[in-house]
Structure formats: structure tokens, C-alpha cells
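Bumping with the actual sequence this time:
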Amino acid sequence: MDSPLCHDDPVEDTGRNDSGNPTFSEIVAARLSRRAMLGALASTALAGALAPLASRPAAAQAASSLTFAELSGKPSPRHAVAAGYRADILIRWGDPVIAGAPAFDVHNLTAAAQDKQFGYNNDFLAYMPLPPGSASSEHGLLVANHEYTNTGFMWPGIKRDTVLEKMTRERVEVELAAHGLSVVEVRRTGGTWGVVADSRFNRRVPMTTPFRIAGPAAGHKRLQTNADPAGTRVLGTLNNCAGGKTPWGTTLHGEENFHNYFSGDAPADSEAGARKRYGVGTSGRGYIWWGRQIDRFNLAKEPNEPNRFGWVVELDPYDPASTPVKRTALGRFKHEGATTIVNKDGRVVLYSGDDERGEYIYRFITAGRFDPANRAANLGLLDDGVLSVAHFDADGTLRWLHLVHGEGPLTAANGFDSQADVLIEARRAADLLGATRMDRPEDVEPDPVTGVVYVALTNNAERKDSEINPANPRAANIHGHILAMVPPGGRGKDADHAADIFTWTIPILAGDPSKPEQGAKYHPGTSSDGWFSAPDNVAFDARGRLWIATDTGSNWSKYGIPDGLFACDVDGPAAYLTRRFFACPLGAEMCGPEFTPDNKTLFVAVQHPGVDGLPGSSFDTPATRWPDFKDDMPPRPSVVVITKEDGGVIGS
């Protein structure tokens, strides 16, 4: 999430980690020479898949399993998809979700209406088949995160110098209602997808929804407030970015840039250090009008409220009456993603990134084992286990360091009196363990076919000149890269995701390969339309192919390419030969790629169309329009559903 007003102020790139831990760029300096990398990987079972920089003939493009005609990388006011495919808007901000929802009226927004309507800026998407436990690909539930709002595109007359005056309590309550989650029943009929109106499953989860706090930090004094003296119940979830799904049929939602929502003069108390480490109370940034209108976001009145955000949320979409849960055992940081895989021993492994410059990659392993025959028993698995953080060595080794109270520096002598303290201050605990500072780790997702875990590292414009070298030549990593973490044991189900030692490599360094000074690395057959910048979310289709969504922010105009969706094989002669499949409209970000089990439908989330990189664009003067919008309405964030015109499998 960037600026809530107009999304041109990248808060993820601020960087608050002054721990002195080694940066990933420093480690790559000793690792990422082509010869050294391939030599180190030669002994691994996946050496072929993880040697993308090896010499391959450019003609290998023809060997790609992806047969679609690559899309041109030209910016456009409208979205575009590869020839032979349809891309239709399924649902948009303000469309009805709950029975009785009023028609969307952009000139008369109310919290009561928004509580029943689809929220703003949809990010993560999860398709959950109906009936539960089936592999149905034409009937299911679609769950969406509503990450944040662009205030300047919701009401007329909102500018930087007028926002505090114009954002009344009533308008703030609309913004609260536009955050959170949505669940909608969807069905494909006659080849066309639609939302099932008035479904009993349809649900909105705005900022007024009660959540249960579970796990080691539940009830801790640092989570207690005037409204919740027990520290076990909190209203709502904020800034949900990427997420994940569990094997037992629930969805996970990562609370990312929660720091943006709190303002006011915090007391000089024991929480001051923690607030600073997370950026809470940063002057002049974020939704400072929330704290002026609602006490719980005012640090002077509720200094512990920020500690109740920054967690992973679990939702049961199949039970509309269920209470969502914040799973504190997974640690508190700016979660981007919470993806799971069942390890070969039955334990569930969850991966997550902390999306800010210089932050870390985390892993959680449940103490208990997944029981496919007992869903109720699985619902508490995420409350007990071991959280770890990644340390990357220059020899290609990845070590997982355990964040366990009493081990190493995580003791009372360093301010950690319990496991709850370790989890509430997961960033500081990771600092003390010596975790590796990364270039904005976003989505972290295991490939279900190969077992390799891929990380989207979006960018880091602050890498110092002193860190450049021939193997890692970018002093400022403005384009980001893709990291592959390889568990031992073999491919697929043989991979041991619970092992404490992995190997790692970088299959793609993003950027324009036609400009040598950028140091981009792709398959040599990559076309002029196949390169990208700022990888954000990743997904896998049924064949284990990698799909990469991008978020360049306002830089798309500088680079001359729109954000969108790219795909590539990860095995064979065409491994990591990326091809552009979908392009967002001007100013929009690509999020949430999600396939149906049969791979014949792809859902994607298009955030903030008409916003990024378009100076002066606002509700009053939108810089672009795209399908189905009236002349008096700015473009709306939407979910787009993509199908092949002949009804076949996406990508091939």
C-alpha cells in the first residue's frame, strides 16, 4: 500500500531496519556469479530447474509449454489480455454483496451501504469450491481482501490541503467499511461467470466485525485496550494484502501496512521502541484523519491498539456466522502473503514475507499434524508451532533461525519476557537472531509440483553504491527479483519444508534486458514484451508453472510498460522464459492471481485504476476510464475473470 490519498508515496520503501544485519545484496555479492551459482547447484536434485542463467538457445521459446500469443507491453486506458482469451469484470467496488444492499451511488456514500457492498482495492483472491472439499471449477466462493482506500478517488474535492477538513467522522466510517474482506458465491453458467445474488454465503467483514485473538499473545497486557481490557477481541482487520488458503478450507489474510492508520501523540512508554520499529505514528503519513475522528486510532488515547494489528487473519468462508481469528503464533509484522503446504510428515508449513525495504522472510511450522478426516481438529493448528526467520549464506545455504523465547538472545535480558513478547516484536527478535535483510519480500509461495518456494522481492531503491559488484551490479535495485528457496529431500511431496537447512538461488533479476546497465537476467529467449519490473504476487497453475503479478507504482510511465501478469515454465529448456499475458489499465496494479482447480478460469484483482503515475488524477478529474464506467464516476477497483474463448486450459 502506498499513500491512501492518491497512492504515489511508497511507504513500503521507507525502511526501518537499522539492525546492522547483513543485507541480501551483500550475500548475493558472493553468490550470484553465473559460474559460482551453477556450480553450487550442480549437486541439488533441482539443478536443471534452478539454472536459468545457463546458456540456452533463443529458439527455446518455441519449447515453452505456454502457447498463448504474447501480449504487447504498451500502456492503455483499458485492460488487455492475450489473444484468444476473455477478460470480464466480475465485481467492482460498491457492487452488492449482502441481501438488501442498495445500488451503488458514488455521490452518496454511507457506511451502512458500504457494509453490504464490495469493498475497495481488492488484493488477494481465493477461490473455494462448492460443495466444500470438492474440486468444482464452475461453482464456488470467491474471497477478496480489501487492502486500503484511495480517499481522493472516493469523494469530490479531496486534496492534500483539504483532506483533514473534508474527512468527517461519517466519511471515515465509510473508509472503515470499505476495508476488510468480502466473500461472494460465484457460478459459471453458459460459459459466463457471475455473482450469486443474495447467497447465504455472501459476507462482508468490515472494520466493525468482531475478531477473536488466539495463540500465545492472546490476552497479553500489550494487547489490552479500554474497549477490550481482556486483550482477546478486536474489531476488524486492516490493510490486508496477499494471503493464502489452508488445507482444511479456510482463508488466510495478511495485515500489512497497519502503521498507516494510527496518529496522535503517543505516550513515552515501554511501547515506544516497538512503535518505532514498525513505523507507527510516523508524522504526516497515512490516514491521520482516522485518529482525529475515532479514538481507537489515536495513540494518545489507545497506545496499545497498533499491537492488535500486523497479524495473519483466518476466515472460514463456508460458515458465514463464524468469528474470524487473528493467529498470533504466526508473528506480528507487515505480512504479505500467508501460503501453506502440507509437509511430508503431516505438519503444515506456512510462508510469509514482511513487505518493507530491509525486512525478512518467515516460516511457521505447526506442532500438530493435518488430519484430512477431522476439519474441526485442524482449526486450531495455527495456534501452536515454531516461527522462524531466514538467514542466507553466500555459499547458497539458507538457514531457518527459530524465534523461540528463551533461546539465544530472545530472553528477558533483551526485553522478551515471554513468547508473546517475541511474537509481538517479531521484527526485533529477528534482528537479534541475525536474519538477512531483504529487498521488500512480498509473496512467498511453494510450487506444489516441484516443491521449490518462490519469493517475489519487489525492489529496493536504497541499496548503497558500496554494495555493487560485477555479480550484483545494481546499486539501487529498482526492479526487484525472484528468489527460489529449495527444501531438501527431492521434488514435490518428497520435499522437506520443515528442514532447517535449504539452498537458494535467484532465477530472475527483473528489469529491461535491453539495457545492460540494469543488470537484468532472464532466459535469453525472452522477448521485448516479456520483461517486467517489481514482482509482487506469484501463483502456480495445475502444471506448476509460475505466474507473476507486478506492481511498479508510478514508475510504469518511466519504464513505458503497464503492470500486469506474466507466466513461465520452471523446468526444461524454456525455464524462466517469461511471457506477458495480461496488462492492467493505466495507473493500476495487478494482484491476486487465482486459478480454479481445472485451470480453465483465472481470477485477478485490478487495484486503483487511473491512480498511479497520473499526476492530478482524482475523483474530480480522473485521468483514465475503462469498461463500464459512467461519465460522472472515477474508475473503480475490480475483480476480473479470465477464460479461454474455446473453453480450454489457461496458458496452453
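The C-alpha cells above came from a reply further down the thread. DSSP finds eleven helices and 29 strands in the chain.
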